[in-house]
Amino acid sequence: MKHMFKKSLLGALVLSLGLTGCGTSTKSGTSGKDSQTKAAIVTADDVKTETTLTFWHALTGPHQDQLNKMVSGFNDKWKGKFKVEASNQGTYTDLSTKLATALTAKQLPTMTLGYEDWMYSHHEKDAVVALDDYITNAKVGMKDYEDIFQAFRDTTKLDGKTYAVPFNKSTEVLYVNDDLLAKAGVTAPKTDDELISASKAIKEKTGKPGYGADSLANYFITKTYQQNAPYHTGDKVNLTNDVSKKIAQTYQDGVKGGYFRIAGEDKFLSGPFNSGAVAMYQGSSAGAAFIKPNGFKFSVYPVPGGAGIQQGTNLSVFKTATPEQIAGAWEFIKYMTSVDPQVDFAMVTGYLPIRQSAAKSAKYVEFAKKNTVAQLFVDGKLKFFSDPVYKASTIGRSEIEAMMQKINSDTSASVDEALKKAQSAIEFAQKR
Fold first, then answer.
1. Which fold has domain 21-170+310-385?
2. Domain coordinates of the chain in residue numbers?
């Protein structure tokens, strides 16, 4: 693979986030896409007139409201120097599509929120600013950069350089209907075997499915990492090995037996969970705000089987920006990832703070006492892994989701054939 996100621990960056410590640019040839130097950096002190920065994102509702408050805070701080204009571009799919179009037309925003796999394609086209010289700059650097959890930092590197800074992060957790589990005489599962046996008992005692995964792609990908058989190594994808087959077959068997379910027409499992139609579901830790149980008690646990997948977006800057805009974008990144804005954003949205100091702050620790997901995070009980990007990884994820949807919407579908089809589609995309 030509460009690969930095990874450790045999490809799956598995970390417990316990709180115990812890310019202008010119294009070069194929030997290195960035030739930025410390001498070339324009800083905020060099900017003499108010400079407007365009910022694209896909946050909505309360998440967007809080983001706008943060943007206003930055604009107030830098009034007369920098002004950020934040613009929602629709869904994340819409944002990705618009960025691709803007990249072709060379009409990109100053900066964007985006996922790691998007950064791969932007980097391939020499479009994103390497931030290392800004991070380490004696005058405007981020001296507390390593305060950002390493699990988050390591996903923003390509070819040994840093092309983004983490902003909003989450993992997956297991939401549990305490009442239904009590009726079935089972406890929250910690292993895959316990998940299956508990789900069967719940189905037998209550008539309701025991478990469902909000994202079938996440379920499949997570299980491959938990079982030390990641579905890809570098660019090489392997969906047809015995581990992959067993993972897919296990879920299909559960749907056939009625003790697992998929979201289906409900789109998300928070609705069925809230109504008591499913006893447990695996979903985003940032989705806790959508849990509004109808007359039952619920709890939140780490996902069964091991580490959960790390998710979320990062802040990156495009080379089409002027040196003055890049200087402002760097100040914006520092502001948005500083402790107080991160704590406030986490408390409103349910995302996890990206900084150790934010997670240990008195304000967040107090908040965690009334928020189960935050308490799990503060207590160091949430472990996650990073799935490094690879060539055509966006398509790869879509194909895995489609494969899992196919075999569980039609339980007569062949798991082997569905896996082979997904593998072929990914390999075809990689040859383009």
1. D-Maltodextrin-Binding Protein; domain 2 (3.40.190)
2. 21-170+310-385, 173-308+391-430
Supply 69's token pair.
């408050």
Which region holds residue 339: left if phi is over 0, alpha if psi is between -120 and 50, else beta?
alpha
Tell me the C-alpha to C-alpha distance, in Å, between residue 17 and each of 144, 285, 343, 353: 17, 14, 16, 11
Measured in degrees and rounded to the nearest 5, phi and psi for residue 9 equal 55, 55
Write the CA distances from 15 to 36, 154, 280, 302, integer angstroms: 32, 11, 25, 13
Output the pTM of the full model.
0.85
Residue located via tokens 């990062």: 314
Domain 173-308+391-430 has CATH 3.40.190.10: yes
Query: pLDDT of 240-255, one tens digit each?
Result: 999 999 999 999 999 9
- The two structure tokens encoding residue 170: 């989450």
Q: List the one residue out of 315, 320, 319, 328 whose CA is nearest residue 140.
A: 328
- Residue whose pair of structure tokens reads 């959890």 in the numeric block: 149
For residues 130, 136, 142, 143, the Cα torsion angle rounded to the nearest 10 degrees is: 160
CB 27 within 8 A of CB 177: no
